[in-house]
Write a structure and sequence with these properties.
The chain has 1 helix and 9 strands; from the N terminus they run E-E-E-H-E-E-E-E-E-E. The protein has 144 residues and is mainly β. The strands form 2 sheets. Strands 1, 2, 3, 4 and 9 form a 5-stranded antiparallel sheet that branches. A 4-stranded antiparallel sheet has the order 5-8-7-6, with no helix packed on it. The chain is elongated.
Length: 144
């Protein structure tokens, strides 16, 4: 039985959790996640750990924040005047918004709402967090 290596297209089942056990994602009830190892399609820490697995192998891995979505960047948290939001938008904590920038659209999460200003965060929701994955190698679809 061959081991998964860079360039292989593989399929995995996974459960993604925070270190406190809170589940943030899973392939349960869906098709396994299919990707090419080493192509940058998934976070680098998970990509690296899948290498060397064989079909049927299962493991639990911890991916440090730096190998997942990076550190939380305080510069990506900003206060904007409520008047900068479209009139039909009533901001609420946890609401997702999208801003247009010269580099393209940016996803924002409203973290607090004041009378005059709204605080938005452009960090990925999992930035700054270590992640734990239970993974199972389902298939090596195409070997490099």
């Amino acid at each position: 039985m061959s081991e998964a290596k860079s360039g292989d297209i593989v399929r995995i089942n996974y459960i993604g959790k925070l270190t406190d056990g809170t589940q943030f994602d899973s392939s349960e009830g869906r098709e396994p996640l299919e990707f090419e190892i080493g192509s940058g399609q998934i976070i680098s820490g998970l990509d690296r750990e899948v290498q060397g697995m064989k079909v049927g192998d299962k493991q639990t891995i911890t991916v440090p924040a730096d190998d997942a979505y990076g550190a939380h960047d305080a510069a990506k948290v900003q206060q904007v005047p409520r008047s900068a939001l479209p009139a039909e938008v009533e901001p609420q904590e946890g609401m997702q918004l999208q801003a247009r920038t010269p580099q393209g659209p940016v996803a924002l999460i409203v973290t607090s709402v004041g009378e005059q200003e709204v605080t938005v965060d452009a960090n990925h929701p999992l930035a700054g967090k270590d992640l734990v994955f239970d993974i199972e190698m389902v298939d090596i679809v195409k070997a490099a």
